[in-house]
Amino acid sequence: MLTKDFQVERSRAKKPLFYIAPTPPNMHPMQFQLAGVEYAVARPHCLFGDAPGLGKSAECIMVSNAIEAKKTLVVCPASLRLNWEREIWAWSTQENVTTYPILKAKDGVDIGADYVIVSYALLANKNIREAIMDTTWDNLVLDEAHAMKDPNGNTRTRAICGYYDGRDFNEGIENVCGRITMASGTILPNQPIECYNAVRLMNWDAIDRMSLEDFREYYYRKGRGYVTGPYIAKFKNKLGEYEEVQRHGRHMSNNVRNIPIRLKDLQFRLRKHVMVRRLTEHVLPQLPQIRWKPVPLLQDAGIRKALSHPGWVEAEKLYQMDEGAFSSGAPIDGSISTARRELGEAKAPAIADYIHELIRSGTNKIIVSAWHHSVLDYLKQSLSEHGLVYMDGRTSATNKQKAVDMFQEHEGTKIILGQMITLMMGWTLIAARDVVNAEPDWVSGNNEQLMFRVRRIGQKADKLIGHMPLVPDTLDEHILSTVIKKDKNIYQALDAPI
Predict the structure, then answer these.
(1) Distance linking the first and last C-alpha atoms of the chain
(2) Fewer CB within 10 Å: N-end or C-end of the chain?
(3) What does DSSP assign to residue 288?
(4) CA Rg, the chain, in Å?
(5) What pLDDT does residue 187 have?
(6) Mean pLDDT of 154-160
(7) What beta strand segments (E) does 237-370 contain?
(8) Helix (H, G, I), strand (E, B), or coil: what is residue 127?
(9) Helix (H) or strand (E) holding 31
(10) Domains of the chain as residue ranges with CATH
């Protein structure tokens, strides 16, 4: 048991001790939000890791208020740019605050605005990035900061943190920012190592300046999993004798560091140095708990045909070798991806019937998500009679916001349907209490992220239900049980008592 630490205790604080961050006179933050800002401004950089739905956007803006920032750069998912503009108008104390959301690369960067809002995707644009680098920013807000989760550094991470091109180092936008304020309720969507880039950016000393490999070695023990490299393969020759040959490629190994350990130590370091995090049940106990409701589907002819696809045989073998393979980087393209899509298509008619029945039985508003466009197209056509709005990755930021507003404000709009990756990011959809996840994700945390669209400040329902349609006694069901196990690791790394 680690000894109690004052800073760790403050990372869970429900009330501020002495500092009250500035807010507009018509806005009334909750006490735990003020305590979070108090924790943040006592550090050079900070992560607001509060559970989704607790108002992290307001906390980030209150940090800019507290440090009297003249220029703030907000980086967020593309779908949330206009939502961020609304939050700034509501919470900023800058007089006649000006905002500039960059919706297209050709819009350029208005360095005269008090707040510039850009998507992670647009950071890859050379002209946008160079324009950002040509000025200085008092506060860099990184919303949904788990966008930097790739430990090897994806395009977004490189644009923010910088990268080596041969021997030359290209600076990232963090070099022109005074302080960094991150927000993510799921900084570990799946694995402890996914927080490495964020922690190194905010306070490398918090993890003893570990390299990526040192971090992996310290927080994981060896287990069975996939690696890429040389290996010895056995095969039968024409005489029926086994021969060995050296090959190079992706293969199973018993020496992969993929079993998390020392998670309470990681949580201690995060909370002491960079992360303030409160759970909904601790600061807003009046909000209802999420209840998962498995919805068993009968194996009709269509589902049986989909389950006979050879991709499920391949997936079953992969699952038996490594239960966590689907959420830890093993390939799920090719035949496995096709099998998953065909099962989603086969399940769609039964899911549509289930949603019709929910509405007939009195459910007023429902969020419906799926992954594949073919599944979404079927559901859109089948459910249109109920007043439906829609969004996916191709929907413009303006039309996504319109869809959210219509669902929230108009009684006749009973369904918001969308691609999971689009729906689960940052929206407030508290008009609903029911979420139907037509194609549950295989990555731990994403299903819960979707549910947190309804478990947010302002929710009035007495219960929240996540409907999970699945085919019993198949890999479809088994993988979801593995996802639940992954969530337990995340709990140990972020929330378990230390």
Answers:
(1) 6
(2) N
(3) P
(4) 24
(5) 85
(6) 89
(7) 242-260, 275-276, 290-296, 366-370
(8) helix
(9) helix 31-41
(10) 6-211+262-283 (3.40.50.10810), 290-494 (3.40.50.300)
